[in-house]
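Board notes (copied after class):
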Amino acid sequence: MKFFNFFLFLAIMPMFFSCSSDESSSSSVPEGFTLIIDGETINVTSVQAYRFDNWMEVAGYGSNGKSIDFKFSTAGSLYDAFVFSIDSENPFGPKSTFEYYNENTFNFDLVSYDANTRRVSVNFSGKVYDNEYDHTSDFSTVSGSFNVEFTNQDTLLAGFGTTAKINGNDWDGMSFDTSDDNTVTELHVLSSGKYFFDIVYESGNPIVGNYSFSNNTAIRGIRFYEYDVNTHEIINYNVSGSVNFTECTNYYVKGTFSLTATHPTSGAIINVTQGVFKESY
C-alpha cells in the first residue's frame, strides 16, 4: 500500500493555504516561467516557489488552468514533476514523470541555484505519463524553463532526505511513499537516476543501534535496486552491509549505512558508501 509521508504533507500544505515564512512566494512573473504542453504554449500567470531545507517545490499556473509542479533537490535531482488541467474544456488529472529513472525520459537541468539571492533557474523537457508506473501508458510532452525567486519555508524536518556515494559518485534521493504491512515498514527512497533504495525496519519505531544485514535479513536493513531501461524491470541486487539507526521517533528515522550490492545474474559489484538518511514515514 502506498502512503504519502506525513511530514511531507505538512510541509507542502502551507504552499496552498498560508503565507510563507519570510514573505509571499506567489508572484506574477509571465517572463520568468515558460511552459509548453503538447505543443500548446501556456500563459503562466502566477508562480509559487518554496525551499524546504535541501529540497524545493516550484509550481507554475496557467491562465487556462493548465499547470505544472516540480519537486527537486537543491543539488539538481528531480524527484517528481506533474502537469494537470482544470480547464473546463479540456480537464485532465495529474500526469507525472516516470516513477523510476525519470532522467531517462525527462531532462531537468538546474542551471543555477543561489541561496543568498533566493533564485533558482531550470530548463526542462520530457514526458509525463498517465500512469507513472507504466512506461507504455499515454503521455504528454512538456518543455520550458523558469527563473524565479523562492521563499525559504520553515520545515518540520531539517536534513530530510538520503545521500550516499555509489561507486564513488554522489547520489541523493528522498522517500515520498512508504509501504507497511503492520510487520515491516519500507521507506522507498528514489532519485532521478536508475538506482534506488528501500530502508527496511520493523513496523513502528525501529530500535536504535547498529545492524548487519544481507538478503536473508527481513528487517533492519537496506535494499538496493536498479531500473533496467532495456527490459523495464526492477533488478533486486544481492546485498550485504550495515545500517546504524541513530535516531528513531514516531515520525522519522535517522541513520547511516554502507553496503556491497551484487547483480543477481552478471555478478557485477556496486559499492555504496557514506550513506546518510533522515526520512519521515
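Comment from the instructor: Residues 6-17 form the longest helix (12 residues). The two ends are 13 Å apart (CA to CA).
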